[in-house]
Structure formats: structure tokens, C-alpha cells
Design a protein that fits this description.
The chain has 310 residues and is of the alpha/beta class. The protein folds into 3 domains: 84 residues, Arc Repressor Mutant, subunit A (Orthogonal Bundle); 104 residues, Periplasmic binding protein-like II (D-Maltodextrin-Binding Protein, domain 2, 3-Layer(aba) Sandwich); 99 residues, Periplasmic binding protein-like II (D-Maltodextrin-Binding Protein, domain 2, 3-Layer(aba) Sandwich). It contains 10 helices and 11 strands. The strands form 2 sheets. Strands 3, 4, 5, 6, 7, 8, 9, 10 and 11 form a 9-stranded mixed beta sheet that branches. Strands 1-2 form a two-stranded antiparallel ribbon. The longest helix has 29 residues. The chain is globular, with a radius of gyration of 24 Å.
């Protein structure tokens, strides 16, 4: 089975429609149908069934699809690397990170390195989860990753680079906005907007609140701090996020208060232990570490000596 055939199977699998798959791949509908028949004849397996006007994958295709997608991803990486070599982009640094960290870490680090090393090029992969960043480093698709701590892959090196804290984001008119900090008890009856529970920060917050006998009413999960702020801005609740975004600069109608007792939130820099970094990538890491150290001092607000026993 070649790459073109795998791409056709994946498109039909994803859309449940031969017509939609044809539009995505930019070929005719008969061409899609013909390819599916050829693969079914070659494999001797029934891969799709027509049910109520939809083209549904069989159990055989469900079993094959993870490997098909991995193969397509590998092919995409090879073609991307060929393109880099053809263009002579030897100074390319690939970074996997979350949206918030581009603002607070990477934009300044990239500018500083570009000033010193004009041949530097950057490929930023904005990931939707910590797990995705770990996978991009493990697969070699990214050279450097920045994300919340993760047990991750044994072949990945992790180094702490910046420390913040968990915060509560609310409208300026909210009853808690007059406080210097927010206690677990304050949020007992609030509608909570937070990161998915698969993310380290969210798990830590919910576990910490449980220590105080508080079960948070999590009404919306969103994996982006700015997205959480958008929901807060519409009055759908208060958000619990990390302090790595200057909320009040982007959302003047909102304010952020630290949660007390303090819940530290850390960001690590990830690199592969199997593949050495280029000289330029090493220099970029140095810039990130320097900026992270400087920013850690302003991302945490003192909370008057409260501790877990307060």
C-alpha cells in the first residue's frame, strides 16, 4: 500500500464520506472509490461499509488506522526535512510549546538569538497538550519542548526553566475581585473553567482542593489560557489557570488573583537524550533559561505566609 492510498483511506475514515474525502485530497469521487476497491482487493479485507448514507470503517480499518496515520506522519516529516535541506535551512530550530509560553518565553528568546545569529530560523509547533509536546520531542519532530512537567518518555531530558503559580481569573466585578488571594472555600459554589484533567496543572489543583474538602464544579475544560479567559469574559464562570499569561493586559475587564495556599506551577524544557542539539539550538536553550529565570520573579505573588495548614 503506497502513501497515496493510505492518504485516501485516512480521509474517508476521518470524514465518513467519499465526496468529502475527494474534496480534501482534490481528486474526483470515482478516483476515491477506485482506490478503496483496489486496497480492499489487495488486502482481502472489507474496510468500509455503507450505513444510512455514511461510509463507516470496519473493525479491520479501525485496527489499521493508527499505523496508517503514523506512516503518513513519518512521510510528512521526511518531506519536510527534504524541503529544509533543499532550501539550505541548516539553522532551523524546531520548538514544540503551548500558546502561552510563546508570549512569555519564546518570542523574546527568538528575537535575541536572531539578533546574534541572523541565520537562525524557527519552526514553532503550538501543541494542544503536554503529551503532544512530549511525543514531538520523542519522535524527533521537535528539537526543544517547553511544557508542564510530565513523566513522559525515558529518552527525554527535562530541566525546570520557569516557576509560576495557579491563579483564579474572574471579571473585575466579581465578588472575589476585592480579595488579594482566593481560598479553596471561596470557589466551592463557583462554575469552574479549567484545563483538562489530563494536564498536570489541573490535576494538581483539583488534588490540592480535595485536601481542603472542596470538590470543584468543573463546567468547561479548555486547553488554552486565553480560551479560558474568553469564557470568563462572557460570564460563564471563573477560571483556574497558570500565571504564564498577562491576563489583565489582554483582557482589561478581567483580573487574576493567586490561589492560597500557593499552588506552584512549573514549566520544563525538554530535549531528546538520543539526539544532540545543534549549536544554534543550544544557544536558544540558553536564551530560554535566562528569560525563564528573569520571569519567575514576577509570575508569583506573595500570599502572606499562608501554608497548607492555614
Amino acid at each position: 500500500m503506497d502513501t497515496r492510498q493510505m492518504r485516501v483511506l485516512e480521509a474517508v475514515y476521518r470524514t465518513g464520506s467519499v465526496t468529502a474525502a475527494a474534496q480534501i485530497i482534490n481528486v474526483t469521487q470515482p478516483s476515491i472509490s477506485k482506490t478503496v476497491r483496489q486496497v480492499e482487493e489487495f488486502t482481502g479485507l472489507k474496510l468500509f461499509e455503507n450505513v444510512a448514507g455514511r461510509v463507516l470503517p470496519t473493525s479491520h480499518l479501525h485496527a489499521l488506522m493508527p499505523q496508517i496515520r503514523r506512516n503518513l506522519l513519518d512521510h510528512s516529516r521526511i518531506m519536510s526535512r527534504i524541503d529544509d535541506l533543499r532550501r539550505g535551512r541548516s539553522g532551523l530550530i524546531r520548538i514544540a510549546t503551548s500558546p502561552a509560553l510563546i508570549d512569555i518565553l519564546h518570542a523574546e528568546a527568538a528575537m535575541a538569538l536572531k539578533h546574534e545569529e541572523p541565520q537562525s530560523d524557527f519552526d514553532f509547533r503550538v501543541a494542544t497538550s503536554t503529551r503532544e509536546i512530549v511525543e514531538l520531542i520523542a519522535s524527533g519532530e521537535a528539537d526543544i519542548g517547553t511544557c508542564q512537567p510530565s513523566s513522559g518518555d525515558v529518552n527525554i531530558n527535562a530541566r525546570p526553566i520557569i516557576l509560576g503559580q495557579a491563579i483564579c481569573i474572574m471579571p473585575r466585578s466579581h465578588r472575589l475581585a476585592k480579595n488579594d488571594f482566593v481560598l479553596p472555600e471561596d470557589l466551592r459554589d463557583e462554575d469552574i473553567i479549567s484545563y483538562p484533567l489530563t494536564e498536570p496543572t489541573s490535576r494538581t489543583v483539583f488534588e490540592r482542593f480535595a485536601e481542603f474538602g472542596i470538590v470543584l464544579k468543573n463546567t468547561i475544560e479548555v486547553n488554552w489560557t486565553v480560551g479560558a479567559c474568553c469564557f470568563v469574559n462572557t460570564g460563564m464562570g471563573v477560571a483556574i489557570c497558570s500565571s504564564f499569561v498577562d491576563i489583565e493586559n489582554y483582557f482589561p475587564n478581567l483580573c487574576a488573583r493567586p490561589i492560597a495556599p500557593e499552588i506552584p506551577v512549573r514549566v520544563d524544557m525538554l530535549t531528546s537524550s538520543l539526539k544532540p542539539l545543534s549549536v544554534l539550538a543550544e544557544k536558544f536553550c540558553e536564551k530560554i533559561i535566562q528569560i525563564g529565570t528573569e520571569r519567575s520573579g514576577i509570575l508569583r505573588r506573595p500570599i502572606g505566609g499562608l501554608d497548607a495548614g492555614s
